Amino acid sequence: MTGLRKGRALAILWADVPSAQRADLEAWATSEPLAPTDPAAGVLAVGRYAGISGAPAFLEVHELLSDDAAVVATSGRAMAVTLRGLGRLGAVTLT
User: Is the pLDDT confidence value at 1 over 50?
Assistant: First the structure.
């Protein structure tokens, strides 16, 4: 098959929120646009997932071309926007 992305690295951000904030997290996650992909900068795909039960409540995954410092930095800048939004919801995050 042609056209398949095959990254060599992932940048993963996960977060959990107090149960009282779960509905707010889901509303925010569905309304907040995903970070743009930038194949030229090495960010091949971005996905966002909400947990159905248990933890984590939120997961964002960036598929990266490589683990090169410049590629990771590009992904980190995109994740910073997500981190700010999660912080407003009182999320506990780990990247």
Answer: no
- DSSP string computed for 35-51: PPPBGGGTEEEEEEEE-
- Tell which phi-psi region holds residue 90, choosing left (phi > 0), alpha (psi between -120 and 50) or beta: left
Tell me whether residue 3 is in a domain. no
Cβ-proximal residues to 94 (8 Å cutoff; 6+ apart), any chain = 13, 14, 15
Tens of pLDDT, residue by residue over 24-60, are: 988 988 898 988 888 999 999 999 998 877 788 899 9
Instruction: Name the pTM for this structure.
Output: 0.84
The CATH number of the domain where 35 resides is what? 3.30.70
Domain that holds residue 67: 9-94
The rounded distance, in Å, linking the Cα atoms of 29 and 82 is 9
3-state secondary structure of 22: helix
Going by C-alpha positions, the residue among 53, 49, 51 that lies closest to residue 62 is 49
